[in-house]
Design brief:
The complex is a heterodimer of chains A (469) and B (227). By secondary structure, chain A is of the alpha/beta class. Chain A folds into three domains: 1-38 and 311-390, no CATH class; 39-293, 3-Layer(aba) Sandwich (Rossmann fold), CATH 3.40.50; 409-462, no CATH class. Chain A contains 22 helices and twelve strands. Chain A starts with a helix and ends in a 7-residue tail after the last helix. Chain B has 227 residues and is an alpha/beta fold. Helix content of chain B is 23%, strand content 28%. Chain B has helices at residues 6-12, 33-43, 54-65, 75-80, 123-126, 158-161, 178-185, and strands at residues 47-50, 69-72, 85-87, 95-100, 114-120, 131-140, 145-148, 164-170, 174-175, 194-198, 203-204, 212-213, 220-226. The longest helix of chain B has 12 residues, at 54-65. Classes of the chains: A alpha/beta (469), B alpha/beta (227). Chains A and B meet through helix 2, helix 3, helix 4, strand 1 and helix 8 of A and helix 1, helix 7, strand 10 and strand 11 of B.
Chain lengths: 469, 227
């Protein structure tokens, strides 16, 4: 079982992390908001994309087969992986067949999900992360902190220390110098690598192209320099038509990084053509299910699979914004992680995930494909065995009992008010409840007035109007 | 292709769904695509030259790259766009094409055609190249994006490995949006292997969200719009 609660305090009291979260999340949100505000028909695009996604999910088998047919007709090999293990075995097998020693990887969350790095290491193959952020966290042996910006919790001082230790030369704290050092170290890896692995952001069924979106050029190199390219793709990533691509690209890049478009958008259809002088001789597309067909079978929660992994919901989430990515202890974090992980791993494996939310609905409002994340969270909470939500259930029952009858509500609030008044010390509310100890030490409730608004209003009405007319 | 149970499984749980919308919402109206392209590309930190004297512009790029040798991804296509080149006939064996840029190191510059030389294709050579020149298939005004040409004889690594990269873009191939380009040319215009849409230089903000240009790809991108 993977829990969140036990480690939250550690992240909440990490001053540096809190500072980074506060500033970075604000910057990311602002960039996204500005990029979105420029698009006059943003709402129309969201509705369109949502409809396309829901349509595609209902016909996923057909669209995937169309994509697979196109890719194999160009000499690409397509492998359908039912589980993470199937996918890893196929990649390791391919690496073995080519006697691969080094694999260059560009950022793939699916790779993290299936544990491809561990599988490769076990087989004696060195996986090298080439996205700068991923490279940094890999050197620290940490998982990514965020699906778009994996190392944003590291300061330039951290990175200088890590690079000095691992790249064999003393480096200053200038991000430009640090980036140049990574470029140099990784350039060698690109030219030596026997295999390149990338993820897939979108796949176009009718033209048979995989879309890989990036800014650094590392995906471009990973899929161009080594003699073999393996693309790992979740089966939910397909869209029907090339004409839909501009809409999805616009939604994805503006939501993810606030860019009108990323520096590089790669469209890959297969291995190198006979006319080409470089590019991979072998191209493999691994279509990974790993629990997705199960999610699809549940029509009420199917929309989870519409996610395009832009990370916008992480950036607005008040919970992610306080505890950060590592507190979740899972590959996908934040609101989308909270709905995806229970469905991928099984609800009892991550029973706290659906509760890592205030249900403020900011995630639903920002989602470029309008996934109703709060509704999914509630569904997932309901589906958990009772013992995982005892406190929640009790609180909700008391709340419901209080509110379902007007007289009961008025009575309880009147008595509650009187009762609370007994506990004010030096003008502050101090309830003698140890469970509220620290929570209460930084929060206060203003002294409640003698009468409620409702009582006040009824009195004035009884006095003959008083509505000011 | 191995037959898989996955598609059948997915079909069994298809359920109800909305129809596929007929066509995507229209993109923005762009009155002057060339002007918009220049603005957007510059905002993405590319250096744009509109209808420049090609040799002078190439010399400027070479000086800024600190080199006097340029590598051509497709000399024939560059020549078709009005760059005065001599030689550089294509060859059956994989090759790299390059030219010395006279006058790159001094301001006195003759305007004679550049002589294109050929050497065997070698990745180690490419990784030492300072300045590469490619020809774009199309430009997208809305985002200042260029689409790399299909199957260039110089290969696909050259434009991404060199720290300085020049893209020659025909002015009449600038489309208002990506949607317009795809509508005009469709899937047939895409290469079966690899296609690259490039917008500005390579960049990262992975260290403290500080923008750094030139991570794995070029840190300077020039776009010469030629009529």
């Amino acid at each position: 079982m993977i829990r969140i609660r036990p480690q939250t305090a550690r992240y909440l009291y990490d001053r540096h992390l809190q500072e980074v979260l506060r500033t970075t999340m604000a910057t990311a949100q602002q960039a996204r908001d500005e990029a979105v505000a420029e698009v006059e028909n943003w709402e129309e695009l969201r509705n369109y994309a949502r409809q396309v996604k829901l349509h595609t999910l209902a016909h996923l088998g057909d669209y995937l087969e169309a994509l697979a047919d196109r890719i194999s007709s160009r000499g690409g090999r397509v492998f359908w992986a039912e589980t993470a293990e199937d996918a890893c075995n196929y990649v390791v097998e391919t690496a073995r067949r080519h006697s691969a020693r080094t694999v260059v990887k560009s950022k793939t969350m699916l790779g993290e999900e299936i544990g491809i790095n561990t599988a490769l290491q076990k087989a004696g193959v060195e996986p090298v992360e080439t996205d700068l952020g991923e490279f940094i966290v890999q050197l620290c042996q940490e998982p990514p902190f965020h699906i778009i910006t994996p190392a944003f919790h590291k300061t330039r001082q951290d990175v200088a220390r890590i690079f000095t230790q691992h790249l064999g030369q003393p480096l200053g704290e200038d991000p430009e110098e640090l980036t140049a050092a990574a470029r140099k170290a990784l350039r060698e890896k690109f030219l030596q690598a026997d295999l390149g692995i990338t993820g897939v952001n979108l796949a176009v069924a009718d033209s048979g192209h995989l879309v890989v979106v990036e800014n650094e050029g590392n995906a471009r190199l990973s899929l161009s320099a080594p003699p073999v390219h393996i693309a790992l793709m979740g089966i939910e990533k397909v869209i029907p038509r090339l004409q839909d691509l501009p809409v999805f690209l616009k939604l994805l890049t503006r939501s993810a990084t606030g860019q009108r478009i990323t520096s590089y958008v790669n469209l890959i259809g297969g291995p190198r053509c006979p006319e080409e002088v470089d590019g991979p001789e072998e191209f493999h597309l691994v279509l990974v299910d790993n629990g997705r067909s199960r999610i699809l079978a549940d029509e009420r929660k199917r929309e989870t699979l519409a996610c395009i992994r832009c990370g916008a919901c992480l950036n607005v989430c008040p919970v992610y914004g306080r505890i950060g990515g590592h507190a979740y202890r899972t590959v996908y974090q934040g609101p989308v992680g909270a709905v995806l992980m229970p469905q991928l791993l099984g609800p009892e494996q991550v029973p706290e995930h659906p509760f890592a939310s205030t249900l403020c609905e900011a995630c639903r409002d920002i989602c470029p494909v309008k996934i109703d994340i709060p509704r999914l969270l509630l569904e997932l909470r309901r589906e958990l065995p009772r013992r995982y939500r005892r406190g929640d259930a009790l609180a909700m029952r008391v709340w419901a009992w209080t509110f379902e009858n007007a007289g009961r509500y008025a009575g309880i609030s009147a008595w509650g008010r009187r009762l609370l008044r007994l506990f004010y010390r030096d003008g502050r509310l101090a309830l003698p409840l140890p469970v509220l100890g620290r929570w209460q030490s930084t929060r206060d409730l203003p002294r409640l007035p003698n009468k409620t608004f409702y009582e006040e209003f009824s009195n004035q009405s009884a006095d003959g109007g008083g509505n000011g007319q | 292709m191995k037959q898989s149970v996955i598609p059948a499984k997915l079909r069994r749980s298809a359920g109800s769904a909305p129809p596929l919308p007929v066509e995507p919402p229209a993109g923005p109206d762009i009155a002057d695509p060339v002007e918009r392209f220049c603005r957007e590309a510059e905002q993405a930190q590319a250096r744009v030259r509109l209808r420049p004297d090609p040799l002078e512009a190439l010399r400027e790029a070479a000086v800024s790259a600190g080199t006097d040798t340029i590598y051509w991804q497709d000399p024939a296509a560059a020549s078709a766009l009005g760059i005065p080149l001599a030689g550089g006939e294509s060859s059956a064996e994989p090759s790299l094409f390059y030219s010395a840029v006279p006058g790159a190191q001094d301001s006195e510059a003759p305007s004679a055609p550049l002589e294109v030389r050929r050497r065997p294709y070698d990745r180690r050579v490419i990784s030492q190249v300072r300045l590469s020149v490619a020809t774009a298939r199309a430009g997208i005004a809305e985002t200042g994006t260029v689409l790399e040409s299909t199957l260039p004889p110089g290969g696909r690594l050259l434009p991404i490995l060199a720290p300085h990269h020049v893209v020659l873009l025909p002015e009449n191939e600038i489309y208002p949006t990506l949607g317009h380009y795809l509508q005009a040319w469709g899937a047939e215009s895409l290469a079966p292997g690899s296609n690259l849409f490039m917008t500005g230089p390579s960049r990262t903000a992975d260290i403290e969200k500080v923008l750094i240009l030139g991570v794995h790809g070029p840190h300077r991108l020039w776009i010469f719009i030629l009529s």
